[in-house]
TrEMBL record:
Annotated GO MF terms: DNA-binding transcription factor activity; sequence-specific DNA binding
Name recorded for this polypeptide: LysR family transcriptional regulator, glycine cleavage system transcriptional activator
Similarity section: Belongs to the LysR transcriptional regulatory family.
InterPro entries linked to this entry: LysR-type_TF_proteobact-type, LysR_HTH_N, LysR_subst-bd, WH-like_DNA-bd_sf, WH_DNA-bd_sf
Claim: Transmembrane helix is one of the keywords in the record: no
PANTHER family in UniProt: HTH-TYPE TRANSCRIPTIONAL REGULATOR (PTHR30537), TRANSCRIPTIONAL REGULATOR-RELATED (PTHR30537:SF79)
This protein's UniProt keywords: DNA-binding, Transcription, Transcription regulation
Keyword Transcription: yes
One GO BP: DNA-templated transcription
Species for this entry: Lentibacter algarum
All copies of domain HTH lysR-type, residue ranges: 6-63
Length: 300
């Protein structure tokens, strides 16, 4: 195998084929003909001196020894995409770029941003709501607001706050199901579940709150399961059932009367939320202002 890198176009064609599973799909993605994809893969095989695909009749797939190579190649192309995205953001000349967990951005950070502008003047802030944690190498150009142990991979992190959870429902649901105010009856009522996924397995769910109160958990399935807390809270506000709400996410809806607490007993989140950043971020005055501001907001 040669040590010199293969042609980029050949690697791109192979990466697309392996990810999408067919020559025709790779051709559509890259805007070329299927024949061109096959030709580039053959060129890569010749360069590496090893077969990369196997054929079973008319179907082609990755050769067993090529799977690990494809995985590393895919990760490399993903980093190239991230670098291009980062450059685009820098060209846009934004003052502050913040990536954060979707509901935390929507329900906690966004409603407070006018306080930042009132204190430091007008600023151009990009908010990116995603569960995907950014590569720590790119954190010199953005803040990341995340939860728990996910913060440990970043160069710098400060705890914002540790939230509390309690069950909520809509006023209409409470009118239809007055037993919701009796904690021992909650397990028998329609309920809404929240599942952030395996990366956030410590985030409490309604069953955890019930167990903490010494109460039985629901024997029936939830009305719906949501990967976003904001989506679950909307379902609760629409009268679909009882949901476990975090205080920082539900406070505005409670103030507006869209949601009501069905119990004053709360369960503390096992870990706090964090703001994370890279070393060069503090060279920018507006970034320093944002960090100081968001920490002060979290302490109130």
């Amino acid at each position: 195998m040669q040590s010199i890198l293969p042609p980029l176009r050949a690697m791109h064609a192979f990466e697309s084929f392996g990810r999408l599973g067919s020559v025709s799909a790779a051709a559509r993605e890259l805007g070329v003909t299927p024949g061109a994809i096959s030709q580039q893969i053959k060129l890569l095989e010749e360069h590496l001196r090893m077969p990369l695909i196997v054929k079973d009749g008319r179907r082609a797939s990755l050769a067993p020894k090529a799977k690990a190579y494809h995985a590393v190649l895919s990760a490399g192309f993903e980093k190239l995409k991230q670098a291009q995205h980062l450059l685009s953001q820098q060209v846009a000349d934004l003052d502050v770029h913040v990536s954060g967990l979707p509901t935390l951005v929507l329900k906690w950070l966004n409603p407070r941003l006018h306080h930042f502008e009132a204190r430091f003047g007008e600023a151009s802030i990009r908010l990116e709501a995603t569960h995907v944690e950014p590569d720590p190498e790119f954190l010199d150009h953005m803040f990341r607001i995340t939860y728990g142990t996910a913060s440990r991979v970043f160069p710098h992190a400060r705890a914002l706050f540790r939230d509390t959870c309690f069950p909520v429902c809509s006023p209409k649901f409470l009118e239809d199901y007055p037993d919701a105010l009796d904690p021992e009856k909650i397990a028998d009522l329609p309920w809404i579940d929240i599942d952030w996924g395996p990366a956030y397995s410590t985030v409490p769910r309604l069953s955890h709150w019930l167990i903490a109160q010494g109460l039985p958990i629901p024997a029936h399935k939830p009305i719906s399961v949501h990967s976003l807390s904001s989506s679950a809270l909307e379902a609760a506000a629409n009268g679909q059932g009882i949901a476990l709400a975090q205080s920082s996410f539900a406070s505005i809806d409670i103030e507006l009367g869209r949601l009501v607490k069905v119990s004053h007993e709360s369960l503390q989140m096992p870990e706090p939320y964090f703001v994370c950043w890279g070393p060069q971020m503090m060279e920018n005055e507006k970034s320093r202002n944002f960090l100081n501001w968001v920490l002060s907001e979290a302490s109130e």
